[in-house]
Design a protein that fits this description.
The complex is a heterodimer of chains A (304) and B (215). Chain A has a three-stranded antiparallel β-sheet with strand order 1-2-3. With 304 residues, chain A is mainly alpha-helical. Chain A has a domain of 188 residues. The two termini of chain A are 36 Å apart. Chain A contains 18 helices and five strands. Chain B is built from seven helices and six strands. In chain B, strand 4 and strand 5 form a beta hairpin. Chain B has two domains: 84 residues, 2-Layer Sandwich (Alpha-Beta Plaits), CATH 3.30.70; 82 residues, Alpha-Beta Plaits, CATH 3.30.70. In chain B, the strands form three sheets. Chain B has a two-stranded antiparallel sheet with strand order 1-2. Chain B has a two-stranded antiparallel ribbon with strand order 3-6. Chain B has a two-stranded antiparallel ribbon with strand order 4-5. Helix content of chain B is 30%, strand content 13%. Chain B is an alpha+beta fold. Chain B starts with a helix and ends with a helix. The chains are: A mainly alpha (304), B alpha+beta (215).
Chain lengths: 304, 215
């Protein structure tokens, strides 16, 4: 019981992350709650678009499309209210994988490269500039968020179509008069595995594992950087009680964007003001003195 | 300890190198294949700009016609395409793929699927075509969803026997939507009727000019 209380935020967060994957899978379970992927989807037939993808589209296609902008704004406003990188900490499956590899990193690390804090802003600007120059939404081509959510949402669907006969013949194709004789034999090989865009995710995770802890999520992902910028002034932040804090620094070890806690723990502010914080709330769970808590930062406060 | 370190380093370097190299070679490898897009897709270059690779159209396609471009498809990764020989477009009246599209990559103004233009069917192998050889095949004519419009039968006398009739399938570009049902149904191993991109040589410029000069 005590253990659950100690890990309550982690358990809640895992539950939310798991529900996101269930939402992505819901069309396969014939539930009409959510359709689409994390780039764009429909929740109860309200169009939602990843705001970074929406910006990318407008820069690349150089057109303004109202439903897309509204869809992007709904998502952006939501994440502004709950605190910017909550998307990373609570929704994105890549972050989940990244947390896992960050744990393994301590054992398997060859190097631990730490790019400077401004590195991710360069990446962010470079991707946006590339979209303008090439007129293609460049980040969406390699977006691991898109790739993994497509593989979750369509993966089973697509492999059913590719692996052919047994799985699909029952409803659609047979009724519409198409036998799947052409789709069977040649696909029983390694082709699907070698063509899979999941290789890009494997690459990210391998770099995470061997060369730089949480590399992609901390230093590279432009979607994360977008939410960092968005979350600058968002009201939900972690507050630190300087009287209770003994500076044991245990929270540093569980924090994936690790440098966000340094300033508040050392006493220069009352809040975790660095918006690289994903509000994953691991630090609240680990804190032996209960010095940290989540609260609303609405008014400006003086440093005590 | 040193030996362990060496093994660790080489395992790390080789796995990252192989995965990285493999994905980048596949991603950047040029691919000259034409990708047939869902109904209502805008011009190919603009389509590649406007498609945000969300995969919603692929998910909403009820017949699994649309496939999602993968690593080997380079720039087309994450974009929808059709392989007519596998599953052709079934021409749903409500066009769910267009409804699904969150951007302008698929034209939301297209309401009638019969006005879509994914390509144009062409008799690509006149020598192999069974109908043109005087055999009563005409499968492409019968499966065409725009019966007697996109494909008509041109009947003329068989030149060898002088008794029988050749039922020649003739495709009309202005009606053909390029759904690929005919290509899918063609009984030959290598199809005699194939959907090709609509943008091909245009005779109109020369043709009209000639006519105008005469009058």
């Amino acid at each position: 019981m005590n253990k659950i209380a100690q890990n309550k935020w982690r358990i809640l967060r895992r539950f939310v992350q798991f529900s996101v994957i269930l939402l992505l899978l819901s069309p396969l379970l014939k539930l009409s709650v959510f359709r689409g992927t994390l780039i764009s989807g429909e929740l109860f037939s309200i169009l939602l678009v990843d705001p970074f993808a929406a910006i990318d589209f407008m820069l690349a296609a150089k057109t303004f499309y109202l439903p897309l902008v509204i869809g992007g704004l709904i998502v952006a406003v939501f994440y502004f209210i709950v605190g910017g990188r909550v998307f990373c900490g609570w929704v994105c499956p890549i972050y989940w994988l990244s947390e896992f590899t960050a744990k393994l990193h301590d054992r398997f690390a060859v190097l631990n490269m730490k790019p400077s804090a401004s590195f991710k802003y360069y990446i962010f600007v470079i991707f946006l500039l590339l979209s303008v120059i090439t007129s293609k939404p460049v980040f969406e081509l390699i977006s691991p968020i898109g790739i993994i959510s497509q593989n979750i949402a369509l993966g089973v669907d697509q492999s059913q179509a590719q692996f052919g006969k047994e799985l699909t013949s029952s409803d659609n194709i047979e009724n519409s008069g198409y036998t799947s004789s052409l789709m069977s034999d040649s696909y029983y090989d390694w082709q699907i595995l070698f063509n899979s865009s999941l290789w890009l995710i494997a690459l990210i995770l391998l770099i995470d594992l061997f060369y730089s802890k949480g590399w992609w999520c901390r230093h590279a992902c432009p979607v994360g950087t977008f939410y960092t910028l968005l979350g600058k002034f968002s009201p939900v932040k972690i507050k630190i009680d300087h009287v209770a804090c003994t500076q044991c620094n245990e929270c540093f070890d569980v924090c994936l964007p690790s440098n966000v806690l340094i300033a508040p723990v050392q006493g220069s502010t009352n809040w975790v003001i660095d918006s690289s914080c994903t509000n994953c709330l691991n630090c609240i769970d680990i804190c032996p003195e209960n010095a940290l808590k989540i609260s609303l930062k609405i008014k400006k406060e003086n440093v005590s | 300890m040193k030996r362990r370190d060496f093994i660790k380093r080489s395992v790390a370097f080789s796995t990252v190198g192989i995965t990285g190299g493999f994905s980048f070679v596949s991603l950047l490898g040029s691919n000259k294949k034409h990708y047939f897009r869902p109904p209502g897709a805008i011009e190919e270059n603009q389509f590649l700009s406007a498609c945000i690779r969300c995969g919603k159209c692929v998910q909403d396609c009820p017949y699994d016609t649309l496939k999602l471009g993968s690593l080997e498809d380079g720039l087309n990764i994450g974009t929808p395409y059709i392989d007519f020989r596998e599953v052709p477009c079934q021409m749903c009246a409500d066009i769910p793929c267009i409804t699904a599209c969150p951007t302008t990559a698929l034209n939301h103004d297209l309401k009638d699927v019969n006005k879509s233009n994914m390509g144009t069917a062409v008799i690509t192998d006149r020598e192999a075509c069974l109908s043109l050889n005087g055999i009563r095949c005409e499968i492409c004519y019968r499966v065409c969803p725009l019966t007697n419009k996109a494909i008509t039968l041109d009947k003329h006398q068989q030149s060898i026997t002088k008794k029988h009739t050749v039922f020649e399938p003739v495709i009309h570009k202005e009606f053909c939507t390029g759904c690929g049902i005919c290509e899918n149904a063609c009984p030959l191993d290598k199809t005699a009727i194939t959907v090709l991109p609509t943008e091909r040589g245009d005779k109109a410029a020369h043709y009209i000019l000639l006519r105008e000069q005469k009058s």
